Amino acid sequence: MQIISAFHGALFQFTLFCVPKSGVHFGTYEQAAHALTIKLARLPLKVFSSLNEDTRGQKGQILQVKLSVSRILHVKDARTSAGWSKLIRRTKKEGYDSLSYQNEFEGRLQEISYVVFNPDQIEILGIVQ
After folding, report:
1. DSSP character string of 43-98
2. Is the pLDDT of residue 92 over 90?
3. What's the rounded mean pLDDT across residues 21-44?
């Protein structure tokens, strides 16, 4: 079992991740902040305005997490939800429980990001302030 420390940008507060077919993506703090900014920008103004602010007046949150992975496969960035869903279906059949990839979109440095398939692999350590 390998433990990976990572971050995730989220719009709302929650205690358990819901894992879509495209997996849940995690990365560096900068990648999480970039992803959160994109999520916030896509919200309708009414929804954006209804979000709670943190002590600094920021909306959304960046979670620090601990990922537990057993079989990780390094892949190319699949770029779309459909691409990730297809890749995850294939790699699950091959016995992998997670993916890593050089993130070509979020963050400036194109660092490694991770995708996990099961909420039991994710431990939320806290909200980064």
Report:
1. S-HHHHHHS-B-TTS-BSEEEEEEEEESSEEEE----SHHHHHHHHHHHHHTT--E
2. yes
3. 93
